[in-house]
Design a protein that fits this description.
Elements lengths: L7 E4 L2 E4 L2 E4 L2 E4 L2 E3 L1 H8 L5 E4 L4 E4 L1 E6 L1 E2 L2 E2 L7 H12 L4 E9 L3 H7 L14 E2 L2 E4 L23 H8 L5 E6 L6 H10 L3 E4 L6 H10 L3 E2 L29 E5 L7 H10 L4 E4 L11 E5 L2 E6 L2 E4 L12 H12 L3 H6 L3 H7 L16 E4 L6 E6 L2 E5 L3
Parallel strand pairs: 1-6, 2-7, 8-11, 11-12, 11-13, 13-14, 14-15, 15-16, 16-17, 17-18
Antiparallel strand pairs: 1-4, 2-3, 4-5, 7-22, 9-10, 19-20, 20-21, 22-23, 23-24
InterPro entries: Amidohydro-rel, GlcNAc_6-P_deAcase, Metal-dep_hydrolase_composite, Metal_Hydrolase
Protein name: N-acetylglucosamine-6-phosphate deacetylase
Keywords: Carbohydrate metabolism, Hydrolase, Metal-binding
Length: about 400
């Protein structure tokens, strides 16, 4: 009897690799993507299982680096059973092709950070839900003038740099991104400190001018949080943080952008895409109302009213996150920009992986990477199944 090879072969499929959709089989073993030449010429092995994909599209799993919650769960508010809430969202995300995400906490008081943050752990994905890459902390070290939906009761300056952040947040062990305003006192020292810990720094909720932004990038920041929203508008004499899209700094600046048909005009999406195509990252910025009907929800200490799918701070017309899942953002983005399908898919997979420095394991289908991928209808982009580490973790009902 022939020994099992542990190989799974996805046959008759179109896969996104290296910026192109190509007709090629995908080989998986031990949760990784395998080079078939090794299988054919060295091992001379055959697949234990062959799956006929019927000409469907296989794309890298999507990575959402800014998501505040969904399905009734708010990561910044629900402190009674944090783990249960996070896992509920992680499970629901699978149906949208999201294989990894960064649960995002907005500006909160110290007690909330103490009760919630230690309970959101970096966790591998599986049938229980998408991989938790680490927490994205958005605030409270932001500008009062550009607070958006953040409570001004808790907004403060990072006067003592990294020490100020640790006093508020506590342990940073499971943090992957911090959004702050670079013009604040102590912000540049905080950026240097966070970067030394391997934590990515995003610039946002800010009145920073371009010079402030460029100083922050030189100190280690490499991201902008929800471009165009909660920052100074573009001006030809000083383009502000938006100007970082055309900066002359040496390293790539990445930027999250919300393509829900509400936050960002299609023309603004096209401008961003054409100015700095390599840095564009689609984010959902979804709130607790994601996946649920209109009603009243929360984002941190703020109440949210959802009307016709638009989330506002109660009693105002201030937008506070979206109700749109990442797979739908991809579709809306492609329609708005008329970009290639390959590019649209990479803005939610390869680009966020590069921004986080994990592209060697996530965000693409290169040999040796984690076998996190989505099987989609190539015409409608409907998610048909989601796979993490080579295991089917979600399959759409027919």
């Amino acid at each position: 009897m022939k020994a099992k090879s542990g190989l799974t072969r996805f046959h008759n499929c179109n896969i996104l690799r290296g910026g192109k959709i190509i007709k090629e089989d995908l080989w998986i073993r031990d949760g990784k993507i395998i080079n078939p030449e090794q299988v054919f010429y060295v091992e001379q092995a055959e697949a234990d299982t062959t799956i006929d994909c019927d000409n469907l599209l296989i794309t890298p799993g999507f990575i959402d680096i800014q998501i505040n919650g969904g399905w009734g769960i708010d990561f910044s508010f629900d402190s009674d059973d944090v783990e249960k809430g996070v896992y509920k969202v992680a499970k629901e995300l699978l149906a949208h092709g999201v294989t990894s995400f960064c649960p995002t906490m907005v500006t909160s008081d110290k007690k909330k950070y103490a009760s919630i943050l230690p309970r959101i752990k970096k966790t591998p994905g599986g049938k229980h839900g998408a991989t938790i890459l680490g927490v994205h902390l958005e605030g409270p070290f932001i500008s009062l003038a550009k607070k958006g939906a953040h409570s001004d009761d808790y907004i403060i300056n990072p006067d003592k740099g990294l020490e100020s952040l640790c006093e508020v947040y506590g342990s940073l062990d499971d943090v992957i991104i911090v959004t702050l305003a670079p013009e604040l006192p102590g912000a540049l020292d905080a950026i240097k400190g966070l970067t030394s810990l391997g934590i990515k720094v995003a610039l946002g909720h800010s009145t920073a001018n371009l010079a402030d932004g460029e100083k922050a990038v030189k100190c280690g920041a490499n991201l902008i949080t929800h471009l165009f929203n909660a920052m100074l508008p573009f001006h030809h004499r000083d383009p502000g943080l938006v100007g970082l899209l055309a900066t002359t700094t040496e390293k790539q600046v990445f930027y999250g952008i919300i393509s829900d048909g509400i936050h960002t005009h299609p023309a603004a999406l096209r401008i961003a895409c054409r100015t700095n195509c390599d840095g564009l990252i689609l984010v959902s910025d979804a709130v607790a109302a994601q996946g649920l009907p209109d009603g009243t929800y929360s984002i941190g200490p703020m109440s949210v009213s959802v009307e016709n799918g638009r989330a506002y701070v109660v009693g105002t017309k201030t937008l506070c996150g979206s109700t749109t899942a990442l797979d739908e953002c991809i579709i809306k983005f492609k329609e708005a920009t008329d970009c290639s399908l390959e590019y649209a898919l990479e803005t939610a997979s390869l680009h966020p992986a590069k921004a986080l420095g994990i592209e060697h394991v996530k965000g693409n289908l290169n040999y040796g990477c984690d076998a996190d991928f989505v099987i989609m209808d190539p015409k409608t982009l409907k998610v048909l199944s989601t796979w993490i580490a080579g295991e089917c973790v979600y399959a759409a009902t027919k």
